[in-house]
Structure formats: structure tokens, C-alpha cells
Design a protein that fits this description.
heterodimer; A: about 240 residues; mainly alpha; Four Helix Bundle (Hemerythrin (Met), subunit A); two-stranded antiparallel sheet; two-stranded antiparallel ribbon; globular; B: about 110 residues; flat; Cyt_c_oxidase_su3-like_sf (chain A); Cyt_c_oxidase-like_su3 (chain A); transmembrane (chain A); cell membrane (chain A); membrane (chain A)
């Protein structure tokens, strides 16, 4: 995608520097640093930045616990294996969960695109599909938790080794699962608004009593992609490492 | 009304790009799963896990979250601070090693 002109023009006909010069000019300018980004989008990004630190702290805590324990760390490959057709397939449920979440991110990205094209029906349908995939993910996570708990994994111990395995597992995947659950709820709320045509009729929202537009779909999408993003890191560090 | 014009101008990449990235994320996830399935161990394993993780994260942020089309003012404000987490990691590695050392020294257990 080559959109790297040295200047960009906006609706007022003024040109705005791009590149590093533009970065300096934006941050040194009056009133607002994020020039062509609405407050809603900027605030969602800043919320996601703070959430990055929350998950960053969890993963650093996990690293410290795993590095400092004197007992061997349970082998995730075996712990999360499923017994299918007479043999143990390592990590298969986690792999499926990963594919489900990535698919939900794909449908969400397309929902945002159709939203900006004012295609109400497709936007709502894709958002509902995203919510369904998210719910499927949470369901599989509940299954995984049930299986592990029935095998004796607790926050204070487990049959295979270091006690910290249980606490970090429940903490990290639990917090992530909570994010997915809230995402599903908000997806359903926004999908309903899209379906009803709120963003075309200028109907006011229940909480802020502001009129919404299709950018809300994109902001919702940012949150959803972030949930997928966090899972990429959890998958790499907790399940694969 | 300024908002509305800003949106009319909102550049939207083609659906094809999303489908391509989606496919790429599937392939990369399959690769990172294969790392475990095949049983690569040690440094090659860690290298591959982190490589696929960063590629996936980059694709999600750049394309799905539209970061590739944002101005640098936002890109730097959001993407640079998380890099500081690496400082935290660098602090906690010697700390963890020290904890392990004291545990072994005083409880007499070896990992």
C-alpha cells in the first residue's frame, strides 16, 4: 500500500506534513495532537495502550514465576493435549481456539469495511458472526478450564509440577476470557444499533445521548482486534514456550 | 458536519486485502502450532515462536487495526510505550534468577 506522499490534504484544502516532520508538527500544534482521528478512536487506542500494560504485567509476572520456581514447569504441550481417536494430539484445542479467534478478527475487519460503505445488513451480519465466534471461543475456554480443574489443577497446585502454573494460567486466560466476553456483549449491542439504522437516522445513544456514526463499528473493531492480539502473545508465551 | 466529511474521505482498503491477511494469519498460526507439533526445542523453538508471534501481531495491528493508515503522531503514541515493557522484562530476569538462587541456597532444592 503506497500512500506515502510527503503531504496530505484534508477537507479544508490545507496540506499537512507527513513523516517525522508531520509527527513533530502534530504534537507541537494547538488543541489536538491526533489530527484526523476522532476523540472516540483516540480514547479507545489509549485504553488499549493501558490494557497492553495490564497484560504486559501479567506476562512478566508469569515469566518471573516460571524462571524462579525450583520445581519443573508442567509441559503445556502435554497438559493441553486432547485424547482424540486413541492418541493424544498436543495443544489441539488451543490451536482451534486460535483459528476461531483469528477468524472472528477477519469477520470484524470486514464488518468495519462494510460499515463505512453504509451496508447495514452485511455489517450487522458480520458483527453477529464475530460475536458468535467469540462466544464459541469462550465456550471452548470454559471446556478447557473444566477439563483442567477436573484433572486437579488449582491456583495453589497441580499434579505435574510448579504450583505457579495454575495461578498464572487461571489469571491470564481468565482475564483474557473476560475481555472476550465483554467484547461479545458490546458486539451484540453495536450490531443491534447497526441493524436498527441508528447510525443513519441519527438516533441518540442511551448513555451519552450523542448521535453515533459508523466509526463506532471501527472503534468496536479496535477492541476486538486487541483481544485477538493479546491471544497471539498468550498463545506464544504460555502455551508454546 | 466536519465529522461527516472526514468520514466520506475515510480511505478504505479493499476487502481482498483483509482476506489475504486473514489467510496469512491462518498460515502463521499453523506454523507456530507446527513448532510444537514437530517438537522443535531450545533456541530454534524460541526464535520461531517469537518470529511468528511478531509477524501475526504486526499484521493485526497494521492492517486489521488500520495502524498502517494512521498518522505518525498516533502510531508513535500507541506503539512506542509498550516497548518499555522490555525494560521491565530486563529488570525481572536478574530478579527471578536471584529468587531462584536464594531458593536453592536456603531450601536446598535443585530445579
Amino acid at each position: 500500500m503506497s500512500r506515502t506522499a510527503q503531504t496530505e490534504s484534508n477537507e479544508t484544502g490545507l496540506t499537512r506534513a507527513s513523516g517525522l516532520g508531520g509527527f513533530a508538527a502534530d504534537w507541537a500544534s494547538d488543541q489536538r495532537a491526533f489530527k484526523n482521528v476522532s476523540w472516540g478512536k483516540a480514547m479507545m487506542w489509549i485504553f488499549l495502550l493501558s490494557d497492553t500494560f495490564v497484560f504486559g504485567c501479567f506476562l512478566v509476572a508469569y515469566m518471573s514465576a516460571r524462571m524462579s520456581t525450583v520445581e519443573p514447569w508442567p509441559n503445556a504441550s502435554e497438559v493441553f493435549a486432547l485424547h482424540i481417536g486413541g492418541e493424544n494430539v498436543p495443544l489441539i484445542l488451543i490451536a482451534i481456539m486460535t483459528f476461531v479467534l483469528i477468524s472472528s478478527s477477519g469477520t470484524m475487519a470486514m464488518a468495519v469495511n462494510f460499515g463505512y460503505r453504509q451496508d447495514r445488513r452485511k455489517t450487522a451480519a458480520l458483527m453477529l458472526l464475530t460475536a458468535a465466534l467469540g462466544a464459541l471461543f469462550v465456550g471452548m475456554q470454559a471446556f478447557e478450564w473444566t477439563k483442567l480443574i477436573s484433572e486437579g489443577v488449582r491456583p495453589w497446585g497441580n499434579p505435574w509440577g510448579a504450583a505457579q502454573f495454575g495461578s498464572t494460567f487461571f489469571m491470564i486466560t481468565g482475564f483474557h476470557g473476560t475481555h472476550v466476553t465483554f467484547g461479545v456483549i458490546f458486539l451484540l449491542i453495536v450490531a443491534r444499533k447497526v441493524m436498527r439504522g441508528d447510525f443513519e437516522s441519527g438516533r441518540r445513544g442511551f448513555f451519552t445521548s450523542r448521535k453515533g456514526n459508523y466509526e463506532i463499528v471501527e472503534i468496536m473493531g479496535l477492541y476486538w482486534h486487541f483481544v485477538d492480539l493479546v491471544w497471539v502473545f498468550i498463545f506464544a508465551f504460555f502455551y508454546l514456550w | 458536519m466536519a465529522e461527516a466529511t472526514a468520514h466520506a474521505e475515510h480511505k478504505q482498503p479493499a476487502i481482498k486485502l483483509y482476506l489475504f491477511v486473514w489467510g496469512l494469519l491462518f498460515v502463521l498460526s499453523a506454523f507456530s502450532y507446527m513448532v510444537d507439533y514437530v517438537g522443535v526445542q531450545g533456541y530454534p523453538r524460541w526464535f520461531l515462536i517469537i518470529l511468528f508471534m511478531l509477524l501475526k501481531a504486526g499484521l493485526i495491528v497494521a492492517v486489521f487495526m488500520h495502524m498502517a493508515w494512521e498518522r505518525l503522531a498516533l502510531v508513535y503514541a500507541i506503539l512506542l510505550p509498550p516497548v518499555m515493557v522490555l525494560v521491565f522484562v530486563a529488570l525481572m530476569i536478574p530478579e527471578s534468577n536471584y529468587t531462584l538462587f536464594t531458593r536453592m541456597a536456603f531450601f536446598g532444592t535443585a530445579p
